[in-house]
Design brief:
By secondary structure, this protein is α+β, with helices and mostly antiparallel strands. The protein is built from 23 helices and 11 strands. The strands form 3 sheets. Strands 7-11-10-9-8 form a 5-stranded antiparallel sheet. Strand 1 and strand 2 form a beta hairpin. Helix 4 runs antiparallel to helix 5, helix 7 packs across helix 10 and helix 15 packs antiparallel against helix 18. The N terminus is likely disordered.
């Protein structure tokens, strides 16, 4: 069965599948549920009228009768229609839909911003302002596509964040309510009861029998992904480009600092079969949802590797690579501005040289007293643990745009023209004129980037590939791409290679990764 979203969407009403204009193909969705194939998790949820619960497609429970089934495009839509989450398959912990990476329209951009917690921090007016739409029109668009508006989608995410905090920490329940983004304890209690069919205290009691608490100051969560995933290539890519002081890869664990909306943090990521274990240290627990979203984005965990590999394997030149290493992902970003700086610094110098320059910039602009606080802070800003988390290596967050814009010449260690380019880039990001974290239209981002002196098509395409998550970005002039193409017997001339690459659409970003590895 194909995994493209068009296989689940249907222009005409289908039995039990119509939700305010959203049409899901009942028969195809039902076959996916009957197969219990985890590849379909995240594309839609299955609601069962006889039990009042909704599940992920791969739920191991007995397949319900067709007459008792309703399909919804999102957990928020199922919750809005009175269904509660299955406690067996945990549909809220499924991988996200790969559609939000593929789509560059307002719905895709909105979903990326909601996942990053924009509604919790700025409300629906802030989300609408970022997207350039009125609140009413944004609500209409999201409801038509997902069966729920921005508030309902954000509420579903708050419920998931609350469950993670309830089950994996000893924070007080009132504290968790505000950390998860709820406006009151009553709202928190009502939502948890509605979504999980039990009180928060009952969720905690059930979890205590099957888990061990993390060290003080840390949270450990599982980040699910669709199999297969070639983790070795991910870790190898990140290790080769790791900036000393910001990130490292050692003994199969990737560690890095995070700059989050309410403070600093750090993540330790370890790949396992079917999930990545993420141990997070946060200066403020309200940053849990953004930290999870950014780690998922960094490792491309919401990708549909079967669909990607099926397309690339149709090219005889790439087929052997796909069969040898299925599930190669595109490493993306926890901070779009950081990727843009890396791209500018990396122009016409080696990867090792770029690491040296970037490490110098970090050291100059991130003083010791800005290193990550080892203690978790509560939602009210007070310290949650008296003792810091000892035994961890110090890491510093990558400088923000304002710091780079105001940096002295000696902090850069690069030619004057490149310093000028970086400062211009940083000023645009700091002023809000350029959003490199997925909230702005990709075409507009490229236009604004290439208007900056010193930024050309290669740099803009690299930013699109890693910072914006464009699955179809292509870098025909990149030296590594051209070398990889030559190694595979493909044309290395940029014009001819671009023409050949048309057959890889809409997954040319993944083809770039294959060519880099072939080089």
């Amino acid at each position: 069965m194909a995994t493209a979203t068009s296989d689940f969407r249907e222009p005409e009403a289908a039995r039990g599948s119509s939700i305010e204009g959203v049409e899901l193909n009942f028969e195809r969705c039902y076959r996916a549920v009957a197969s219990r194939d985890p590849r379909f998790d995240g594309w839609f949820v299955t609601a069962v009228t006889s039990t009042g619960i909704y599940c992920r497609p791969s739920c191991p429970a007995l397949t319900p009768k067709p007459d008792n089934v309703r399909f919804y495009p999102s957990a928020a839509a199922a919750q809005r229609n009175g269904f509660r989450a299955c406690r067996r398959c945990r549909p809220d912990a499924a991988p996200g839909s790969p559609e939000w990476d593929i789509r560059a329209d307002v719905v895709g951009r909105a979903m990326r911003l909601i996942a990053d917690g924009v509604v919790d921090r700025e409300g629906v007016p802030g989300l609408a302002r970022r997207l350039g739409y009125t609140e009413r029109h944004l609500h209409r668009i999201l409801t038509a596509e997902l069966g729920a508006g921005p508030l309902a989608l954000a509420r579903a995410q708050r419920a998931q964040t609350a469950r993670i905090l309830i089950e994996t920490t000893d924070l007080g329940l009132a504290e968790i309510a505000f950390a998860a983004g709820f406006g009151s304890v009553r709202q928190f209690n009502d939502t948890v009861r509605e979504v999980y069919a039990c009180a928060p205290s009952a969720l905690r009691a059930a979890a205590k029998s099957r888990r061990a608490l993390a060290s003080p100051g840390t949270l450990t969560v599982r980040l699910a992904y669709r199999r297969p995933m070639h983790a070795e290539s991910l870790w190898e890519f990140l290790a080769t480009r790791a900036v000393p002081g910001v990130e490292e890869v050692a003994d199969g664990v990737y560690r890095r600092a995070l700059r989050l909306p309410h403070g600093l943090g750090a993540a330790e990521l370890t790949a396992h079969d079917g999930y990545v274990a993420a141990t997070l240290r946060l200066a403020d627990v309200r940053d849990l949802a953004p930290a999870v979203a950014r780690c998922r984005r960094l490792l491309d965990l919401d990708a549909d590797p079967v669909a990607v590999d099926a397309t690339l394997a149709e090219d005889p030149a790439l087929a052997p690579l796909v069969y040898k290493e299925p599930g190669v992902r595109v490493p993306r970003a926890v901070d779009g501005f950081e990727i843009a700086v890396r791209a500018v610094v990396g122009q016409q110098i080696s990867v090792a040289g770029a690491r040296t320059v970037l490490a110098r910039l970090v050291h100059a602009l991130t003083p010791v007293d800005h290193e990550i606080d080892r203690t978790t802070r509560r939602a009210d800003g007070r310290q949650a643990h008296d003792q810091p988390d000892e035994g961890r290596g110090a890491v510093a967050a990558f400088p923000d745009a304002a710091a780079v814009a105001d940096a002295p010449d000696e902090a850069f260690g690069m030619p004057a023209a490149r310093r000028t380019t970086l400062r211009a880039l940083a000023r645009m990001v700091a002023a809000g004129e350029l959003d490199l974290d997925g909230g702005m239209d990709r075409t507009e981002v490229t236009r604004r980037l290439t208007a900056i002196p010193g930024i050309g098509p290669w740099t803009a395409s690299y930013v699109a590939l890693r910072a914006l998550g464009d699955p179809d970005a292509f870098l025909p002039t990149d030296l590594g791409v051209r070398r990889g193409a030559a190694a595979l017997g493909l044309p290395d001339d940029p014009t001819r290679l671009t023409e050949h690459a048309r057959r890889w659409r809409p997954w040319r970003s993944y083809a770039v990764r294959r060519l880099w590895r072939a080089a």
